[in-house]
Every structure is written in structure tokens, then in C-alpha cells.
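User: Just a sanity check before I run the rest of the batch. Below are the C-alpha cells for the first item. I only need the designed sequence back.
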């Protein structure tokens, strides 16, 4: 504190000091012989020599005078105060969407936390408002206890760098902030003063309980493995640097690339509108709108490709392959004669819709078989049903009605399958190529013709499907047209 005024009289000795920020005025009072006659007006007059009337704390002054008249002094009571300035507010960003923060800890306070659906980021469509950037304010001035104006410190602008994935949207109605609009689809990311929308979600390690299932509007890249039971859905491409360890659902509107081992299993499925490439696959069910490329081996897989299946340097053992333009592999089957089926189909037969019809037909057939066991001989001899006791007759009648309904539904499904088979001709120029060896137990099919290898045969060789009701034919080897 700094002393700014002194006064001495027969009533008191007065010393006035101000605080370092000049916002507070303090009084030190020492009683003198005639303290009982101390005047409040005289005391205030001395205060006004350094301060202003509106700055004084009159109730404190009155109390000091009352105490002084009783012979009591004070050692620095506040008798005046200024008005501090309102400092300017710094500019800031206010997010309107949830940002992605990899490695965020899960709220352990939730007793029933679902570690598969963590929702660590939000999908953002292009054109969406994602954030507001608030401008800094100048603040407002204050007045110190001596009456001098105190200038405020203006706020600092929000310091961030924005790339082309974001643009500012003008708003004539608001001057205090600007709105950020996403120019691409993806997720919001903020790091080290850089703000952007990213259309590739990069998971540096494994996809596991730290991230949960992924449902992303753009591309996904997993730097490690996809652990058992975790799913990925992406509008763009999916790349997995490691392996996929089973019971996973992986779907994409782009390409899917698995650089390691892909383990399928019950309940697992891979679907893409584009291409699928894998190093090693086992027990994988894949429905692909483009081509399937196997780099080393596929074992006991169910592949359906709207274009081709390419395994020029790979071995295909067991399972079934359906493709439209053709198949090319190095080795099909194995020395043990494992049954391996390659079929050329039209472009409707390899679709997910055809598979759904197939699965529905199987379920209907299972249901019919179960009903036949319950109905027994009354299925073939319905005339005996009216002769049954009332309660048993009602039960058998209900089962027969249900059987007829399932049978009618099965007929519609079979008609739908037939229509898909006949709607489009098989791809002209399609073929099956074997570059290395085809073993006993390998079967090649169309919907109308079947050829089975009963002895091992060395490649390179090409098999052409029949044009009409003919048979498969060996032809001069030609590389598969993949386009």
C-alpha cells in the first residue's frame, strides 16, 4: 500500500493509504486529546481530498467516528473503493458436435456400461454446422478509488488453424460469433490448435473395448487387429493392417482390405459394394459388389462376388465361391479331396437379396419338416381328421392350416428364386482358370450344369460353362478379364 494523505488535529491523527491496484482506500486513525468532539463532516472532508463522494463507504465512516469518540482508533479500515474494469473475454470455440478423442476413458460409474457402443465421436454430414467461433470482447473501463479511469485489457482472439474441410458461414443477425460449416463428411477433430473435419478414422492400435463398434460416415483404418465380436460399418473404404479375429460384421460402401488373417465364424459377415482383398481367410462369408482378391489362402469360405474372384497366387480349399465374370486361382482343393465348389452365376444370384431368399427357403423347409412330424399320418389322410376327438381335432386342424400357410409361402419364395435365376443370362466370356493344380473333389457349377473333378489335374487350364444345355468344356487358357 502507498500513503496518499496525512492529517493531524486535536481530535485525531489520520493517515490514508491506497492498495497497489488503486481500488481500495484505507484509513488509519489515532485518537487525540479531544477525540470525543471528533466531527464526521471534517473526517469526510479529508477523505474527499483524495477520493470522490460516490467512492466512500459511509457506514464505515460513521462507525469509525463513533469508535473515535469513545477513544478507539483503527489500523487500516477500508473507507472507499473503486470500480474494477471488466476485462475483455477471450475468443473461443463452442462445438455443436461431439469430437473424437481416442483413448477417452469409459465412465466407470455406469454399472451397466455397454463397452461395445461407446459413441466416442459423431458422424458429420457435409454442410452441417459444427462449431461457433466467438469473437473476443473489448471489456469495459473501471474507475479507481482516486477517480482515475482504468482501461480494460481486451480479450485475445481464438488462435486456431482451419483447413479446407471447414468454412465460415456469414450471419448478419449475429456479430459476436461466426459459424463453422463442414465442407466434407467425417468427424470433428481438434489438436494443438488445429481444427478440422477428417474423413478417415484412424485407430492406431486394435479395435477393442477402448473404441467399441465403429459406424463411420467416411473411411476407417485400423492399425492393429479387430478383436473378436467387434463390428465396423463405413460409408467409405475400410483397411485393417492386422487381422480380424472372428464373429465380426464388416460392411462398407467402398473397398475392404484386410492385410492379415480374416477369421469368420457363426454370425460374422463381410459386405461391400466394391472390392474385398484379404491375405488369408477362413470360414468367411462375404457378399461383394466388385471382386474378391485372395493373396495366399482361403479355407472353408462362402464367397459371392458380382465381378470375379482372383486368387492367382493363392490356394482355395473347401467352401463355395459364386462369381459372375469368373474365377482364377493357383490351387483349388487339396490332396485330401476336400469338397470345394466354384459356381458361375448371373449378377442377381450373387446378391444379398438372393441369399436372403435362399435362407428363407431353408427356414421354411425346416419348419415344414417339423410340422410333418407333429401332424403325422393326418398330413396324407386328412379325411380322418373329422373323426378325431374334439380337442385333438382342433389341434391337428391348426397344425394343418399352419402347414398349408408355410407351404404357400415357400412356393412364393421358390418362384422368386426362379425369377432371379432366369432374369439375366450368365456373363458372356466368363470362365474358371486354374494356374497350378485342381484336386479331386473340386466341383464347378452353373444353375444348369455340373462338372466334378475325379482326378487331379495340373494347370494352367480354363473351363468354359455351357451356353445352353451343354456341358462344361476345357478350352485354351486365357487370362481372366477382370473388368
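Assistant: Here's the designed sequence for the first item:
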Amino acid at each position: 500500500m502507498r500513503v496518499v494523505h496525512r492529517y493531524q488535529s486535536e481530535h485525531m491523527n489520520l493517515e490514508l493509504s491506497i492498495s497497489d491496484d488503486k481500488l481500495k482506500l484505507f484509513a488509519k486513525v489515532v485518537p487525540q486529546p479531544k477525540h470525543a468532539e471528533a466531527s464526521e463532516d471534517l473526517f469526510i472532508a479529508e477523505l474527499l481530498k483524495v477520493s470522490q463522494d460516490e467512492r466512500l463507504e459511509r457506514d464505515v465512516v460513521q462507525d469509525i467516528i463513533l469508535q473515535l469518540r469513545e477513544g478507539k482508533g483503527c489500523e487500516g479500515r477500508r473507507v472507499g473503493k473503486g470500480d474494477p474494469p471488466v476485462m475483455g473475454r477471450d475468443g473461443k470455440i463452442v462445438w455443436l458436435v461431439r469430437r473424437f478423442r481416442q483413448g477417452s476413458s469409459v465412465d466407470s460409474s455406469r454399472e451397466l456400461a455397454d463397452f461395445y457402443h461407446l459413441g466416442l465421436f459423431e458422424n458429420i454430414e457435409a454442410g452441417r454446422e459444427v462449431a461457433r467461433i466467438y469473437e473476443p470482447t473489448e471489456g469495459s473501463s473501471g474507475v479507481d478509488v482516486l477517480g482515475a479511469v482504468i482501461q480494460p485489457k481486451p480479450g485475445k482472439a481464438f488462435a486456431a488453424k482451419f483447413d479446407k474441410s471447414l468454412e465460415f458461414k456469414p450471419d448478419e443477425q449475429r456479430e459476436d460469433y461466426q459459424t463453422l460449416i463442414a465442407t466434407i463428411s467425417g468427424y470433428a477433430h481438434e489438436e494443438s490448435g488445429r481444427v478440422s473435419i477428417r474423413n478417415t478414422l484412424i485407430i492406431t492400435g486394435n479395435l477393442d473395448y477402448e473404441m467399441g463398434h465403429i459406424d463411420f460416415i467416411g473411411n476407417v483404418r485400423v492399425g492393429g487387429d479387430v478383436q473378436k465380436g467387434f463390428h465396423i460399418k463405413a460409408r467409405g473404404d475400410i483397411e485393417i493392417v492386422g487381422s480380424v479375429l472372428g464373429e465380426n460384421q464388416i460392411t462398407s460402401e467402398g473397398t475392404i482390405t484386410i492385410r492379415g488373417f480374416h477369421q469368420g465364424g457363426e454370425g460374422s459377415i463381410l459386405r461391400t459394394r466394391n472390392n474385398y482383398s484379404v491375405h488369408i481367410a477362413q470360414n468367411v462369408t462375404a457378399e461383394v459388389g466388385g471382386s474378391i482378391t485372395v493373396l495366399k489362402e482361403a479355407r472353408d469360405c462362402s464367397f459371392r462376388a458380382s465381378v470375379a474372384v482372383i486368387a492367382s497366387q493363392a490356394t482355395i480349399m473347401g467352401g463355395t465361391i459364386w462369381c459372375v465374370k469368373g474365377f482364377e486361382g493357383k490351387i483349388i482343393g487339396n490332396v485330401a479331396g476336400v469338397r470345394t465348389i466354384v459356381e458361375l452365376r448371373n449378377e442377381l444370384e450373387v446378391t444379398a437379396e438372393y441369399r436372403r431368399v435362399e435362407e428363407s427357403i431353408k427356414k421354411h423347409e425346416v419348419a415344414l419338416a417339423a410340422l410333418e412330424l407333429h401332424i403325422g399320418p393326418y398330413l396324407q389322410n386328412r379325411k380322418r381328421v373329422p373323426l378325431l376327438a374334439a380337442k385333438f381335432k382342433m389341434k391337428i386342424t391348426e397344425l394343418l392350416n399352419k402347414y398349408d400357410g408355410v407351404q404357400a409361402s415357400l412356393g412364393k419364395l421358390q418362384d422368386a428364386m426362379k425369377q432371379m435365376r432366369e432374369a439375366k443370362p450368365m456373363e458372356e466370356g466368363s470362365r474358371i482358370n486354374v494356374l497350378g493344380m485342381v484336386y479331386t473333389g473340386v466341383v464347378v457349377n452353373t444353375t444348369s450344369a455340373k462338372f466334378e473333378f475325379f482326378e487331379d489335374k495340373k494347370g494352367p487350364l480354363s473351363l468354359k460353362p455351357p451356353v445352353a444345355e451343354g456341358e462344361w468344356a476345357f478350352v485354351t487358357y486365357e487370362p481372366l478379364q477382370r473388368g
